[in-house]
Design goal:
Rossmann fold, Response regulatory domain-containing protein
């Protein structure tokens, strides 16, 4: 299965770092966007997963999450808020990675999300 990942982060350098980690650890296509471009990206292309900076959406986070899920993508959150390490309120079932993170931490989270997606059908 071809993995296609969308990274939505306010900070372009963080998004580029995430892109580099992804591309060096797994075969995938990566797109980078801003919070304002999320819905356009989801409308224009299908994604296996979306890596979403939760802090960028404020009170509009539930709408952003809904758009990602309606598009059929897996979801991973990035945050700078250490209070969200146990999960984003109302979105606790999705993995959260605290910024700054190490390559290894990021790879572990992504591998956990992608493992069921790349498993052969029974």
């Amino acid at each position: 299965m071809d993995m296609r990942v969308l990274i939505i982060d306010r900070t372009y350098l963080v998004a580029m770092d995430v892109e580099n980690i992804l591309k060096s650890s797994m075969p995938c296509e990566v797109s980078i966007g801003t919070p304002a471009s999320l819905e356009d990206h989801l409308r224009e292309q299908s994604f296996t997963a979306v890596i979403l900076e939760s802090d960028a959406f404020g009170p509009d986070l539930p709408e952003a999450v809904n758009a990602v899920l309606m598009a059929g993508a897996a979801l991973i959150f990035l945050t700078t808020n250490s209070a969200f390490m146990g999960g984003i309120p109302g979105q606790e079932r999705y993995p959260v990675l605290l910024k700054p993170f190490s390559d290894h931490q990021f790879q572990d989270i992504v591998a956990g999300v992608f493992a069921p997606l790349s498993a052969p059908a029974a």
